[in-house]
Amino acid sequence: MGCRPVLAIDSCHLSGPYKGALLFAIAYDADDGMFPLALGVVGSENYEDWYWFLEKLKGILDGREVIIISDRHQGILRSVSELFGVENHAYCYRHVKENFSSFFNRQNIRGKKGK
Fold it and tell me: Which residues form the MULE transposase domain (predicted)?
């Protein structure tokens, strides 16, 4: 594997006649170019499917240490910690920012000015 030891994993839901989810792992090369390392089509985004996907991903990594960046989906959190360890997991800044912003929007705090 000719890439940096940082992998980004995420999923997208499939629509149309074929339902399910596309799970993917993206790697970065030395020139900051992104390339897909692994793809998987599963029935839904849950713990069992993430565990299966990450188990296969770990097999192709052949024992290399990597840092996995992801959102905070419960299936990802549990399966990454079981297969790679919690010390090898980081949260995606964009997802954390979006969650933080949506929390404040729900609390109706955004735009209020203190007197």
Answer: 6-99
